[in-house]
From TrEMBL, chain A:
Protein name stated in the entry: Fe-S cluster assembly ATPase SufC
GO MF assignments: ATP binding; ATP hydrolysis activity
Keyword match NAD: no
CDD domains to which the protein is assigned, alphabetical: ABC_FeS_Assembly
Keyword Nucleotide-binding assigned: yes
InterPro entries documented for this protein: AAA+_ATPase, ABC_transporter-like_ATP-bd, FeS-cluster_ATPase_SufC, P-loop_NTPase
Family, per entry: Belongs to the ABC transporter superfamily. Ycf16 family.
Xref: SUPFAM superfamilies: P-loop containing nucleoside triphosphate hydrolases
Residues covered by the ABC transporter domain: 2-246
Organism (species): Fluviicola chungangensis
Domain of life of the native organism: Bacteria
From TrEMBL, chain B:
Protein name (database record): Fe-S cluster assembly protein SufB
Residues annotated as signal peptide: none
GO biological process: iron-sulfur cluster assembly
Domain SUF system FeS cluster assembly SufBD core: 211-451
Amino acid sequence: MLKIKNLHASIDGKEILKGLNLEVNPGEVHAIMGPNGAGKSTLASVLAGREEYEITEGTVDFEGADLLEMATEDRAREGLFLAFQYPVEIPGVSNVNFLRTALNEIREYRGEPAISAKDFMALVKEKSAIVELDAKLASRSVNEGFSGGEKKRNEIFQMAMLDPKLAILDETDSGLDIDALRIVANGVNKLKSDKNATIVITHYQRLLDYIVPDFVHVLYNGQIVKSGPKELALELEEKGYDWIKAEFAH
Amino acid sequence: MGYTENDLAKDLENSEYKFGFTTDIESDRAPLGLNEDIIRFISAKKEEPEWLLDYRLKCYKIWSEMTEPSWAHITYPKPNFQGISYYAAPKQTKKYESWDDVDPEMKATMAKLGISLEEQQRLTGVAVDFVMDSVSVATSFKSKLKELGIIFCSFSEAVQEHPELVRQYMGSVVPATDNFYAALNSAVFTDGSFCYIPKGVRCPMELSTYFRINEANTGQFERTLVIADEGSYVSYLEGCTAPQRDENQLHAAVVELIALKDAEIKYSTVQNWYPGDKNGDGGVFNFVTKRGICETNAKISWTQVETGSAVTWKYPSCILKGDNSIGEFYSVAVTNNYQQADTGTKMIHLGKNTKSTIISKGISAGKSHNSYRGLVQIHKNAHHARNFSQCDSLLMTDECGAHTFPYIECKNPSAKIEHEATTSKIGEDQIFYCLQRGISEEKAISLIVNGYCKEVLNQLPMEFAVEAQKLLTISLEGSVG
Ligand SMILES: Nc1ncnc2c1ncn2[C@@H]1O[C@H](COP(=O)(O)OP(=O)(O)OP(=O)(O)O)[C@@H](O)[C@H]1O
Ligand SMILES: [Mg+2]
């Protein structure tokens, strides 16, 4: 589904990703961990198509197409979804209007007719139940005045609505209380199938108790320096990153 | 609701000024220039009574002695007042009794404007008085309004049929001496709309007029007079579209609103004069004087969405004369490319417990300049007057400008005045967020901008809000930077 080869990306002349490799197949869950500033959000942004980054080297193949050549909105329409670490507020635009616009743009791209208002509302009802999103939040302006945890929950609600092939969750667990963490993680699990894949960026092993990864990767200094089974997360939780930093010191 | 995102998508395909076409109806027009004889010509053409000719001549004299004002934040080539034809009328002078009688070409024009009268009448119950080049050519729903004693007709017709009302109220809110353009309008106005709502009547439909400049080089000088008698209510809509032009066109309208005791007038405008091309050539100069007066317990709300014109100069105002009267001003002004807008409002508090609200949303794109100029004046007898003003500016590029000039003159210590202002740049983060959800950049801007203007758009009647949203989107195409 996703093949990243030797990816180099910089911003404002500073290289952040320094030859990153990663392969994700349908049905898989990958966890990416790593110290602050390692480049995890940068990777997510580069994949999603944020224009500020300059790609200096490498290739990214998404479902057989060259992802780096695609326009940002087309990546989304092809099924790439990013749950933001810091979701943005859009005052005056209701969540439902925002999502209906998005959904219809995606459908149009795929040659499908626009969704009727009735079907759309039914979908909102069904998907908001998955993350137990308060109905009031669905009709409020996008993220405006939402608490930190509500914003994160709203990201997963949007993911449920748009039904992506590849979802990248950037620290979706941070800011969630213990119950919310379980609800949101269960939501993600319910959305899982053998056709889609998930990349979970997190600092905490606890999330991985709920969303069990097939692989855990350590991103350090712009590269994936270590990969392993889910037990690697436990090891990191216990030992921290020093041993990895020592191993890859330059 | 009637508006779908697909409508928007269709509009987006068409990035050139959508209504840039002209209708080829032979016209009967005045020779270029302005002097007493031209005024006599206009008055004679319109078969006006003596008193009105005298009024025009008096105003012409006032105007000739005035000098054209200039403002700090607007620059434009001064119109050549002797190079304009002050009167043009479609050659067919006969009035249309029914829809079938209307010139097919006229119908085609209206269809292109997306305001088919048939549709509007049937679906929305809006009575449309379509002003094409100064003379009203189609008036509808008259009989229904007549039953209620509501008068809604062209200004010329009102002069003939209801001279006493016109004589009593014309110039009572905006005297000819008020400003240069008001004086000019008072001397040469050709037509416009007139509306009278009798005591205690609630007008059951939105009254709507579409203006359109159609003759090359024809200055447009509409005159609108709305009188809401005691305890009555009316919602009045005015919308403008103009065809593409090379030379600048002058538009200097005067609108007067009179809300008598306990009456309420809601006046909404979607203004879309041709703004000039990407280099700033062409485009309409829009110098408008709009003012309303409120008697005791009366209320006037101005709502405007301004997207057009090369130069806009406009301050819909309220004179809160009666105790407990209310004035409101909700405005969205968009400028793009080289457009310049200087708009705002004046709230003049004379009576006790008078209240005013000002919500102004400016959006600047391209190299445009957008200024808000507002005056809140509390006179010494206006005990416990209250004003709330909120002026927000949204910048789409680094090259555009937004300026806010709030003036407050308070002569009564019991008054409460609040003013809030913000300036923000459209967020790249917001746009990226939308793109990441599969929304195109144009649509993202449209969503964000419409969200930003929501408080104002919410004040518009539904059909108008739909049109306004589309206009906002069209006028901001490709504007982020
Ligand atoms: N405009 C910029 N100029 C220079 N450096 C930048 C710029 N933007 C981001 N960076 C740097 O890129 C590095 C990677 O940032 P990134 O947000 O990808 O880290 P992260 O792994 O997601 O960290 P965290 O765990 O704290 O979320 C950081 O050192 C950050 O300071
Ligand atoms: Mg991060």
